[in-house]
Every structure is written in structure tokens, then in C-alpha cells.
Amino acid sequence: MPALLPALFLGHGSPMNAIEDNAFHRAWLALGRRLPRPRAILCVSAHWQTRGATVSAAPQPATIHDFHGFPRELFAVRYPAPGDPALAARIAGLVRGVPVAVDPDRGLDHGAWSVLRALYPEADVPVLQLGLDTTRPGAWHYALARELAPLRAEGVLVLGSGNIVHNLGLYEFDSEAQPAWAVGFRERTNALLLAGDHGPLANPATLGPEAALAVPTPEHYLPLLYALGVQQPGDRVELFNDVVTSAVSMTSVLLEPAT
Hints:
The chain is of the alpha/beta class and 259 residues long. It is 30% helix and 17% strand.
């Protein structure tokens, strides 16, 4: 039986983490050196929202700078990883529960390239993205992710990119504050992640009174469910970058087969 690749959820935070020499970027660099090299990467990012499920199939995905107000240096970044149209077709055929559309033109948004630039700086691993339909409940996304689980045995790294706690409306720049509501939600979700208890995590609104502040909109939270959906019995769960900064948590999750 082929070895299973790990699966990941990365708290990506500010786009500046792509180019700054900070603790988050250094952790991604170290993780990239530690991970087995994948055949391809399937990234589920907070920053590609679609109607229904859609997989990207561009042979050479463009680097999308989907933000504003940042330094020119960030807009100059290019991540020229190839795509994999054949794998996109495989994914569309693998999923039976919902139809999966194929987008031949979609590039890589910053939720993907900001972390991949550190994980795989040579940009030589093919990258695809799966769009998020934020009108669907968490259980829908989790069920879709379960159908993607065979990809781990096919050399594909499944990567969710978002933030478990993400409320820019309450974010205080240059603040080191750790609001009690954000820390409380982080502690509750961390306990469930370590216990492998996915049911409550698929419905964050049930995770206490802090949930409305921690997850005011679903797009940054839902990518977590794709990492959890491909988790297998016996996977070791490791949390890292587990920091709350104002109204955002950078908590990241590595799921890897036990050795």
C-alpha cells in the first residue's frame, strides 16, 4: 500500500507573512524541509469562493495578488508553480457526492502562494486549488473532503489555508492583545483537534458564545475541514504557530501517519 502523505491546515494571516522573516514564515520553511516531497498539492484557500465545488486546471497558474494597500515588494512576488490538468480531471471524477466543475484558467491566490513560497520555494511542485462554496454548511465541506482522502495515497498533499479565528472587524494592528473570546475559542477548537472529534468542528456555531466573534464569516474557517476530512485513523496531530494576535489565530495543524 502506498505511503500516505501528511495533510495540513495553515493559518496564513497577513499576506506580508509571505515575505517577512518572522516566526510564522520560519515555521513554514522548517516544515517544508521536514515534509516528504509531494507529487502535487491541492490547496483549499479562504480566497477562492465559488458556487458549488470547482477545481483549478490551468497548466501554468498565474500568481494572483488579491489584496490592496501592501508594499510594492509583495505585488512583485511570483510563484510560477505548474498546474496539473490531469489531476484536476481525476479529482472531478473522484468526488461522487457533488458535481465538481473544472476551471481551466484559475490562478493561485495569496492564500495558496503566501504559504507555498516558504514550503516549496522552488515552485516546482504542481499546485491546484479547490474553490469554497461558503453558502454550504460545514458538514457539506467535510463530506466533500472525505471523498478526497484517497489523494493522500496518490502523492497529493491536501492543504487548507485560512485562519480558525479571523475577525478583521475587531483586529487591532500593532497590538499584542489576546482577547479572551479569541483565546477561549482557540482552546476549545484545539482540544477537539487533538481529540480527533470532528463533529463539533464541522459546525463552529455550536462551539460556544465566542464562535460568533471568532468565525463571523466562514471562508477562513472552512479550509480546516478539508484537512480534517482526509484525516485517517492513527494520524498524529501536531499544532504549531499556535498564536493569537488580536482577532486572528495563526494556529496550524499537521496530520501525519504515525511512524
